[in-house]
Structure formats: C-alpha cells, structure tokens
C-alpha cells in the first residue's frame, strides 16, 4: 500500500482526503463552523503537481487564496495576507494552511516522484533540491537575492542559515524540508500578528505536504493545528482532537 512508503518518513501522515475530512470535522465539532464559513488560504508550492493532487473537499471552503510561491514560502507577504483577511465571513474564520512539499515514490524514494506522461522520476520539490545542490557545492552567497530569481534566492538564504544542520543530516532533502517548514511557520506567525481579521477565529494549520507517484495521490502530516479567538487573542491547540478516532 502506498501510504506505507510515506509513513517510513512521516509516521502520522494521512491521505489528503482523510486530512481534509478530519480538519473540517474537527472545526465543526469544536468551533461549530461549516466549510462555507471558512475563508481558506494556502501557502504551498506553485508546482503543478499540487494543483493536480489538491484534495477536492477543500473546495467546500471559500477560496483558496494563494499566499505561497516556490516550496510554500508565503511570498504574498503582508499585502496578500491583508487582502485575504478582508474576504472572510464576519461570523466565520480564516484558515491558513501552509506546508513545504516533498515527493515520495511508491518504493519509498524521497525527494522525487513519477509524474504523468514522464518515463523517469523528477525532483519534488525541484526548487528545494536545486537550492540544496547549490548549498552542497558552496555556491550560495550570503545576502544574494536578485529581482530576476527572488523566490529561489530566498530559499537559498534560508538553507544557507542552516547549512551545517542540513548537510550533516542523515537525509539532506528531508532535513531541508524540515528547515523550510520552520521558516514558513515563523513567517506565517509574523504575518498573522501584523494583520487584522474581521471574524471570530484564525485557524493555523501547518504541515508537510507529500506528493506521491502519479497513481498514489497526495498525503499530509500536520505539525500544527491551532486556533486564535480574535476577540480574546486566546490560542488553543486542536492537534489531539484532530487525531482522535
């Protein structure tokens, strides 16, 4: 079964369909909100495979508003977050899902997938693997961010600042994806803090989005599932509730 190869790397991963079902069920149970009361933003990689493997039930929510660029970093920034925040139903919530992505083949090879119409596997996330190759070769220059390739240059700088951690890891692309998640999570928290939301709740869902081979579909392992009560700014964790059977 394909999920077994995924769980070698991500033990709590679920299929994207199960992930979204649990997400919406948990929100309805604990916050009493239906999908149409949720304004959904995602910060995911612009790789076409993510559009192909996007879980259909996610479209029951309003949106999505796309915050992310290469490997899911929220390049839309404060302007994107502010625009999205003003589209939310007043009696509802914003839900922000953010995740770098990584490929895992049916036989458990990490960092690549078999894509539709291609004979050989290809990199996934290609941007992350490209930045990792430059890191390993010592080709990333501190502070070098150009207008021509701003997004990949930003990812390169993120990797450079965790160079020893990534290069000394047992699996470099796995570790680079963990580093990327942490950078995205940190930036999302800053953007949320600086944005006003005219609704009841802000729901933050962070994880790793896992692409399988063309006949496998996609998977996800959550790392954060929290909500903020906008009136009181109280924050509560829903991870245990999410994993309840």
Give a quick precis of the structure:
It holds the Pfam family LCIB_C_CA. Helices cover 36% and strands 21% of the residues. The protein is built from nine helices and ten strands.
Structure description:
The chain is an alpha/beta fold and 245 residues long. It has one domain. The chain is 36% helix and 21% strand. The strands form two sheets. Strands 1, 2, 3, 4, 5, 8, 9 and 10 form an eight-stranded mixed sheet that branches. Strands 6-7 form a two-stranded antiparallel sheet. A hairpin with a 5-residue loop joins strand 9 (218-229) and strand 10 (235-237). Helix 5 packs across helix 6 (150-160). The radius of gyration is 18 Å and the shape is globular. The two termini are 21 Å apart. The relative contact order is 0.20. InterPro entries: LCIB/C_CA.
The total domain count is: 1
Which value, in Å, is the CA radius of gyration? 18 Å
Mean pLDDT score, rounded? Answer: 93
What proportion strand? 15-25%
Structural class: alpha/beta
Oligomeric grouping of the chains? single chain
How helix-rich are the residues, as a percent range? 25-40%
Number of helices: 9
- Largest sheet, if any? 8 strands, mixed
Number of strands: 10
Shape: globular
What is the helix/strand order? Answer: HEHEHEHEEEEHHHHEEEH
Distance between the termini: 21 Å
Low-confidence stretches: none
Protein name: Limiting CO2-inducible protein B/C beta carbonyic anhydrase domain-containing protein
Domain Limiting CO2-inducible protein B/C beta carbonyic anhydrase: 16-229
Organism: Sphingobacterium puteale
Pfam family, one: LCIB_C_CA
């Amino acid at each position: 079964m394909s999920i077994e190869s995924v769980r070698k790397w991500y033990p709590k991963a679920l299929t994207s369909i199960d992930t979204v079902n649990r997400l919406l069920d948990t929100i309805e149970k604990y916050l009493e909100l239906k999908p149409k009361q949720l304004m959904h933003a995602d910060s995911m990689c612009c790789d076409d495979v993510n559009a192909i493997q996007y879980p259909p039930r996610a479209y029951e929510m309003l949106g999505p508003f796309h915050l992310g660029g290469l490997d899911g970093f929220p390049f839309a920034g404060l302007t994107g977050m502010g625009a999205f925040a003003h589209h939310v139903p007043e009696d509802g919530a914003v839900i922000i899902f953010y995740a770098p992505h990584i490929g895992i083949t049916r036989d458990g090879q990490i960092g690549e997938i078999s894509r539709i119409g291609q004979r050989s596997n290809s990199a996934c996330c290609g941007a992350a693997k490209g930045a990792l190759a430059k890191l390993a070769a010592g080709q990333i220059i501190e502070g070098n961010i150009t207008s021509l390739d701003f997004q990949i240059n930003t990812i390169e700088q993120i990797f450079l600042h965790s160079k020893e951690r990534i290069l000394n890891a047992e699996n470099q692309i796995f570790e680079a994806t963990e580093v990327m998640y942490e950078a995205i999570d940190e930036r999302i928290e800053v953007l949320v803090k600086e944005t006003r939301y005219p609704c009841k709740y802000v729901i933050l869902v962070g994880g790793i989005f896992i692409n399988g081979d063309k006949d496998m579909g996609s998977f996800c392992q959550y790392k954060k599932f929290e909500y903020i009560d906008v009136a009181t700014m109280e924050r509560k964790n829903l991870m245990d509730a999410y994993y309840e059977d």
